[in-house]
Amino acid sequence: MPDPLHDFFLAAAGAAGALIGLLFVAISVAPERLLGDDAPQANRIRALSALTAFTNALSVSLFALIEGIDVGWTAVVVALIGLHFVLGSLLSLLNRTRRGPGALRDGTFLVGLVVVFLLQLYFGVRTIADDQPVDAVRGLAVLVVVCFLIAISRSWELIGGPSVSLRGELVTLLRRRR
Predict the structure, then answer these.
(1) Measured between alpha carbons, how far is 60 from 12 in angstroms, rounded to an integer?
(2) Where are the domains of the chain?
(3) What is the pLDDT of residues 123-147, one digit of tens each?
(4) Which of 23, 57, 129, 158 fits a disulfide with 147 by CB distance 3.0 to 4.6 angstroms?
(5) Closest to 120 (Cα-Cα) out of 154, 146, 85
(6) If you ran DSSP here, which 8-state letter would residue 65 be given?
(7) Which stretch of DSSP H or E encloses residue 152?
(8) Is the pTM of this model over 0.70?
């Protein structure tokens, strides 16, 4: 583990643990969004993708802190597990949801996770193969940040946080002008 990244992974592990706890609280406050018979599959996928991204960040960060363990192996294993989840979620999304803007957004996030996990797999293998893996570990650190951003975004959607987008606001503006 490159010394300058030790503090980053320490902070990331703490943040990931806290955010996973908050995700569980958010889910337990309104379990009907996920557990009810009429709960949309998209909400289940959002919750699972947030948990997967947070857990990925937590796992990589914690294992990076253990002296004598090559974080590359953790990155590879967690990336493969993440890819398994994402592919299952994409199939579930295709099988159970209607086509529409929400499904497209959910699919886009899942494809984004595929890219993250493939990059993580790449950096994990580089970390294992290289004697001085500073750049590869730095790449893993960047992906930990990306996982946080994805998971926070998915959590926000899951709790029904307001969404404001340039595209949405332009469409609204155009409709009012007509």
Answers:
(1) 9
(2) 3-177
(3) 999 999 988 888 999 999 999 999 9
(4) 57
(5) 146
(6) T
(7) helix 134-158
(8) yes
